[in-house]
Design goal:
Blueprint: H1 2-9, H2 22-62, H3 65-70, E1 74-75, E2 84-85, H4 88-119, H5 122-135, H6 140-156, H7 168-192, H8 196-204, H9 209-220, H10 222-237, H11 241-247, H12 264-273, H13 281-311
Antiparallel strand pairs: 1-2
Length: 316
């Protein structure tokens, strides 16, 4: 009867109070520290967006949105009537250079991932994967001068190609080498995560190792492999130094890879070093291009997330 009365009054039982201990205090501190880290990321992204939009809005007050998005001539730093703010050539060159890089990175990256996860012995894997990961840590300036001083004069000209000192082909090829470790590492992790029971079942049905790799393991890890490709593409789209050093500083609508090209990130770096007034459209063009690049990268990541969620396979 007394227990019923105590429960009816809603008074808390003394034995339900949790005594604060050193462990619970530490867990709370860790939780708040992780929350602070997450908030720093969110606030940093928000700050980047606002800093870009502020100058971009001012830029579009001087240059029309239609002219910027549909114009086919990009000469923002030229004076007088030669000045033009059509961003189409710059976007085209960015995608073109990225495409050249992915033509190198995708087959070699996926091939490397399949070899490491399906063919390499544990000993070989322990050696090759760290070497591959070290390649992704090489400074991009080294890749840039490698393209400028070796790939162009020794390989491309050695093959008889008529290329200039600055050209899209050399920059794109080395860009692919830069992106390759990212694709290979992420794709290898996705392939390795596929349960061994799928492989054993396929081998039990008489499939060869190549058939198991291509027809069983690769489709099962498709979402992770596509995420690796999109991550590599995002890395290539935003690359600056290789294009700045070896690709040239001229944006043009052409399919000829032997001429100089410039991507969006390289323009931002080059224009930031130029002697331009901070109150004119030349300065605002830097932020407008940065906003366009930010939106392109955001779209790529959104496509990747949607694809991964749609085709993700969960194994028990």
């Amino acid at each position: 009867m007394e227990a019923t009365s105590a429960g009816a009054t809603g008074a808390p039982r003394p034995d339900l109070y949790r005594t604060r201990t050193r462990r619970s205090t530490g867990e709370a501190a860790i939780r708040y520290a992780l929350l602070a880290a997450a908030l720093v990321s969110v606030l940093t992204t928000t700050g980047i967006v606002f800093s870009l939009l502020e100058e971009t809005v001012v830029f579009f007050g001087d240059v029309g949105v239609g002219e910027f998005l549909s114009g086919t001539k990009w000469t923002p730093l030229a004076g007088g009537e030669s000045q033009s703010f059509g961003v189409v050539p710059l976007v085209f060159d960015t995608l073109y250079l990225t495409g050249i890089g992915l033509l190198v990175a995708i087959p070699f990256g996926i091939g490397s991932a399949i070899y490491l996860s399906e063919y390499a012995s544990p000993r070989v894997r322990r050696i090759l994967k760290p070497v591959l990961e070290v390649l992704s840590g090489v400074p991009t300036i080294v890749f840039g001068y490698f393209a400028l001083t070796f790939v162009t004069p020794e390989i491309l000209k050695g093959l008889g190609l008529e290329v200039g000192s600055f050209n899209a082909l050399s920059a794109g090829l080395v860009l692919g080498v830069l992106v390759l470790p990212t694709i290979a590492t992420v794709a290898d992790d996705a392939l390795t995560a596929v349960p061994g029971s799928l492989r054993e079942g396929a081998f039990g049905l008489g499939a060869s190792r190549m058939q198991v790799s291509v027809r069983v393991v690769l489709p099962a890890a498709l979402s992770g492999v596509v995420a690796a490709l999109v991550l590599g593409a995002s890395r290539a789209v935003g690359e600056t130094v290789i294009i700045l050093v070896a690709g040239g500083q001229k944006a043009d609508l052409t399919l000829d890879p032997t001429v100089a090209m410039q991507n969006m990130a390289a323009f931002i770096a080059a224009a930031s070093r130029a002697d331009i007034p901070t109150s004119g459209p030349e300065y605002g063009a830097i932020f407008a291009v940065g906003t366009t690049l930010f939106v392109m990268t955001l779209v790529l990541n959104a496509i990747s997330i949607r694809f991964v969620r749609k085709y993700r396979q969960v194994y028990e």
